[in-house]
Specification:
There is one protein chain. The chain is an alpha+beta fold. The protein contains 8 helices and 7 strands, in the order αββαααβββαββααα. It is rod-shaped, with a radius of gyration of 41 Å.
Length: 260
């Protein structure tokens, strides 16, 4: 081989070596970026082997739980971190993953370093290639704030339900009181009436006015604007006012309405 041929071959080797170094650098950058994404994602990530032992956890999850990597790895079996009430559900989900399935938003609580619990959703699946050692990755969503909101809403709903029950009882009592203000059927032998308010109580009101002259009877009908408790309250005032009227006033509709 001539000197020229040797130089050409060396140049090609040097060029290939430079290209290989560039590829290695690009791969290194990609790995750094992937590792940064894994560790600093707003979502927790957790890797387990087929026995459920902790292989790796990202910084986000460590911060949520308050552990260092060494402290978390000391637990070895991730199942030990799961709250007692959720262990059965976790075991079923993990078994499903080992059979090739997935878990989506599995609700569990995880023990923190301070012995409090963090409410999370776990979504997991096998990420290793066929033939390789089984590696299961879980994404971990912190739902503790959501749970607090749900708890607060449940408490408020309970309070509203209790208040509604009290209001219904009050309205039922008010309806009984209002019905008691209406004329009794025994006192109106030749008159039939039917009272059906829009609500439990209302502003419609009627009364039968009696006089010393047995051949004379008065019928009083009123309709207070609106309906409900406020209108029913006005009808109670009207009923009270009517009972305080003398027969002379009751016998004069114009004077009666003026006084009312």
């Amino acid at each position: 081989m001539t000197d020229v041929g040797k130089e050409s071959q060396l140049e090609q080797i040097a060029k290939l070596s430079a290209e290989l170094d560039q590829l290695k650098y690009q791969l290194l950058i990609q790995n750094v970026l992937l590792d940064d994404f894994f560790n600093n994602s707003p979502i927790g990530y957790l890797n387990l082997n087929e026995k459920g032992n902790i292989q790796k956890a990202n910084v986000t999850l460590l911060d949520w739980l308050g552990y260092t990597r060494k402290e978390l790895n000391a637990y070895s079996e991730f199942r030990k971190l799961v709250g007692e009430n959720y262990i059965q559900a976790f075991d079923l989900g993990f078994e499903s993953i080992l059979k090739g399935g997935t878990t989506n938003n599995l609700e569990v609580s995880l023990r923190k370093k301070d012995d409090n619990f963090l409410d999370v959703y776990l979504s997991g699946k096998i990420v290793s290639a066929p033939g390789e050692e089984i590696l299961i990755r879980f994404t971990v969503m912190d739902v503790s704030e959501k749970k607090l909101i749900q708890k607060d809403l449940a408490q408020k709903s309970k309070e509203i339900l209790s208040q509604n029950m009290m209001m219904r009882k009050d309205l039922t009592l008010a309806a009984r009181i209002q019905n008691s203000m209406l004329p009794h059927k025994e006192s109106q032998k030749f008159i039939s009436t039917l009272y059906l308010p829009l609500d439990k109580v209302g502003g419609d009101f009627f009364d039968i006015l009696h006089f010393k002259d047995k051949n004379k009877i008065g019928i009083f009908i009123s309709d207070v604007a609106g309906h409900g408790v406020a209108s029913a309250f006005i009808t109670a005032i009207i009923k009270s006012a009517l009972h305080q009227m003398s027969e002379e006033i009751l016998n004069d509709p114009s004077q009666l309405l003026t006084i009312l």
